[in-house]
Structures are given as structure tokens and as C-alpha cells.
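Write out this protein's structure.
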Amino acid sequence: VQLQASGGGLVQAGDSLRLSCAASGRTFVNYVIAWFRQAPGKEREFLAARRWSGSSTVYGDSVKGRFTMSRDSAKNLVYLQMNGLKPEDTAVYYCGTGRGPTSTWSQPRAYNDWGQGTQVTVSS
């Protein structure tokens, strides 16, 4: 399994970015895919998750209304559209896959495979 996150960069507060996660190495139909982030000295924070074959997405409280997760199944890509970025959004952003129930989606331990992460830095 390979997950590769990309699209990070240095932006100013209020800007937008779209992250991509390229997934390969297995059929993901029965899997959950999620976005997390981790800032220096902090725990990995849940952002969004959905079933690969589903239509509904669960979001973390800190990003509801600003971030949107979507999927291009034909390309095996998952996106995280981030709008209204704030300096506190600065972190390394990761995508991960797992097979847990909805109740576990916000927990990093529910995911077995992770990409290498992409850095997002938001200046004030």
C-alpha cells in the first residue's frame, strides 16, 4: 500500500490550498480514508474521513465549514480543499487508510497505513 500526500506549501492567512492523496497498492473499496495533521509538539489531529465507496464525510470540529474532502475514484485520488487558512493550520498533513467503524474514525490508531505527509505553513 502506498499513500502519497502532496500539495502543501507556504501561504498567507485567508488563502486556500488543495491537498491530494494518491492511493495505490490495493483495492480501497472497503476502506476508510482520512486526513490528519500534526503540528510540532502536538498530537495528530483528525480533520476528515470517509468511506472510499461512500458519499458522506465526517469532519473534525476545528475544520468544519472550511475544509472539504472529496474523491476522484477513477484516479484513486482523495483531496482536501482548505479554505480560509489560519496560522494555526500550520502542520504536516497526512492521509491514512483503515477499516474501523465510524466511531473510531477520529483516532489515529484506527488507520494502518499512512502517507509521508505534506507541510502546510500559513503566515499571518
